[in-house]
Every structure is written in C-alpha cells, then in structure tokens.
Design a protein that fits this description.
Radius of gyration: 67 Å
CATH class of one domain: Mainly Beta
Strand order of the largest sheet: 3-2-1-4-5
Number of strands: 5
Largest sheet: 5 strands, antiparallel
Order of helices and strands: HHHEHHEEEE
Length: 232
C-alpha cells in the first residue's frame, strides 16, 4: 500500500500548531512570561501620588492569523481591577483632613457693653486757684492817739497867738491823736495769705494762712477737719 506525501501547507500548519501549543504550555507553567508582565509594577508611592488614577488595563497582544487548522492560543490572563480600587482607597487615605476652627466669640449686635463705674468725686479735694498776700492792719490800743494828741497840741500851741494859738493847739492835738492812732495800727499790722481753692465739684473756698504757704498755684490739696493739706 503506497503512502501519500503530506501537502506542504499541512506541514506548516502542524508546525505552527505545535509551536503555539508549546508556548501556551510554557506560559501556563511559568517558564515563559505571560504577555503584559514585562511592564514593571507601579510602586506604592506612584500609586498614592496619582489623585484619580485610571483603571489599569493590560494591552492585548497583537492577534496573529493562524491557519485554519491551528488551535487558538491560550487566553491571556487579565489582571483584576484590584490595583485601581487600592489606588483610590490610598488616595482617599492620603487626602489630608482639615478641621474647622471654631469661630471666635463675638459680641452680638445691639448687646449693651457694661460701662466702667465712674470714680466717686472727692468733695474735699481740689486745686489751688490763687494765692494772695494781704496786709492786715493792727489794732490800736489808744497809746498812739494819746501820744499823737499831746505832740500835736504842743506843736499847735507854737503857732499864732491869743485865741489863734488856742485853736491851733486844739487842731494840733486832734490831728496828732489821729496820726498817732494810725501809726500804732501800722506798727501792729501783719501779713496774711488768702488761698482760693477750686474743688473737684466746681465750688470754691477761700482759706487764710498767717504764714507763707508751701503750695503754689495749680497744686492739688485736700481739706481735712477744716485745715488745708497736701493731697496724697
């Protein structure tokens, strides 16, 4: 019985099928790398840096047109979209959380702000408004008038003669008495100091001091028991 030779196309198809079968077995057993595994895996830092990463897809290998008799190659494994979901979760975790600060308390409009209580007015406190030096005449004792009258009478008696001399003596005695009285009062006169104080309530009062005061105009003073003192 004569064996017929195989057609060349059949031989080529058989070789192609055998090669593809071996390649599929190598991929399934891990000897050969699967299509799309040559691409390096994305690092976690790159995955977190992406705000909205696109779903990872593996490019399908270019389709080859096998002969009609060739068996279809083993379907390439497609990576499940686990990396995309993990990337989204990482992005959500990496997103900083900002806490709202409570607004500062503000005084409501129309709310009355309590005013500070005014300090009580010191009725006995004030400021020296003026200081006047006044000469106070002394009191006559009559000795000056008597001495003046005698001296005036003697001088008047030296003028004129007769009734005119008598009249001049009387006038001299009267004038001498008055002049003697004034001289005595002037000799007994002394100085006093009138101090005008304007109090904080607006009123004024005058005080008399026998000795020169230690204050000046504008100094602050206080009345204690009717006596003018320096305000502390």
């Amino acid at each position: 019985m004569e064996v017929k030779a195989l057609h060349p196309l059949i031989k080529i198809a058989a070789v192609s099928v055998t090669a593809l079968s071996l390649a599929g077995v190598g991929v399934l057993t891990g000897i050969l790398p699967a299509p799309g595994q040559n691409k390096p895996a994305e690092t976690p830092s790159a995955t977190m840096a992406a705000a909205e990463p696109a779903p990872a897809t593996i490019a399908a290998p270019a389709a080859t047109t096998p002969p009609a008799e060739a068996a279809p190659p083993a379907a390439a494994r497609t990576a499940p979209p686990v990396a995309a979901s993990k990337s989204k979760e990482s992005a959500k975790r990496a997103k900083p959380v900002t806490k709202e600060q409570p607004a500062a308390a503000t005084v409501a409009q129309g709310e009355a702000v309590p005013a500070k209580a005014a300090a009580p007015v010191c009725k006995d406190c004030g400021v020296i408004e003026s200081i006047m030096e006044v000469k106070k005449p002394g009191e006559g004792t009559g000795l000056g008038a008597v001495a003046g009258g005698v001296l005036g009478g003697l001088l008047g008696n030296q003028v004129g003669g007769g009734k005119g001399r008598t009249a001049m003596a009387v006038l001299g005695a009267a004038g001498g008495a008055y002049a003697g009285h004034q001289v005595e009062k002037n000799a007994r006169s002394n100085m006093e100091y009138q101090i005008t104080v304007r109090f904080d309530d607006g009123t004024t009062q005058r005080f008399t001091e026998a000795n020169p005061p230690a204050w000046r105009q504008g100094d602050r003073v206080k009345v204690s028991d009717g006596i003018l003192r320096s305000a502390d």
